[in-house]
Amino acid sequence: MPPFDLSLREENVGVVQPPPGVTPNFINPSSLQHIPLIANIVLISVSAAFVVLRLYTTGLIIRSVGVDDSCASSTVKFLLIRYGLGRHLWDVPFSTFNDKFLKFAAICVTFYGLSIMLSKVSILLLFLRSWPQKPKRAIYATIAVVVLYSFIGSFYWLFACQPLEKFWDLSITHGSCSEWPKINIFSGVMYTVTDSIILLLPICMLRKVQLPKWEKFGLGFVLMTGGFVLVISIIRVKTTVDMSRSLDITWEYVYSGIWWMIEMHIAIVCACLPVARAFLRKHFTSVVGYNFNTFVQGI
């Protein structure tokens, strides 16, 4: 945990002392709060549209895309804004921040991790359902790894501090906490590794398939959509590393958190994209005219 000055707990004193020459401002401070607000509204709208498309196309309520978790995570992000997100830490009163910000941040991370997990499992299960030349062992192994590290990353705050309340209550001076930035970095690396596997699996699956060139390209594009979040995952790891070096977490988390939210919602979009071709074949036959009957039926 960052080395907060626990002696400053009054309402009119910030969580940490400001840099030399800077005066805390609790009335009209510098703020980035509009950034997560706008980003959440846009991302929720986009991912929700794709979920509706998936539900319409399949005719079933498929919860494996993790839309409930993503909405919960975004809702918690709004609460984080109330408790200091988007302001410099020295402009946030200790009484506003303490026992609230880090508690809701832990909840946000939990929903984020579960949403990413369900999205990736949804894509991997699609591989199992719709492709005859599937490498079953590799897919099952990837699912197991995704579930394992996702649960560790989502609930690490349960064992990060002793006592547990020390994770979010800065007034508790006894006990100890593990270094949470290292856990976040480990989690980010694992996300990147599994994103790479999901991106490469379709290449292995298509090698022995006999299809016309453009049909194989189109099918490969659909199957590889789950790996497109790889670049975002790498950027997110970089911003997490940068944030871990700063004491001003309420300000720096805005930039890191935006990439967390983009990664989560894009993962949902990628989990929904494979059914898009069936939607296009029904409503835009002239655009998507070639035949992937086996694949579409598998979806």
Automatic annotation (TrEMBL):
Chief location category: membrane
Localization terms from the record: Membrane
Keywords: Membrane, Transmembrane, Transmembrane helix
Membrane topology: Multi-pass membrane protein
Keyword Transmembrane helix attached: yes
Keyword Transmembrane: yes
Family: Belongs to the SAT4 family.
PANTHER family linked: INTEGRAL MEMBRANE PROTEIN-RELATED, PTH11-LIKE INTEGRAL MEMBRANE PROTEIN (AFU_ORTHOLOGUE AFUA_5G11245)
Protein name, UniProt field: Rhodopsin domain-containing protein
Source organism per UniProt: Periconia macrospinosa
Lineage: Eukaryota, Fungi, Dikarya, Ascomycota, Pezizomycotina
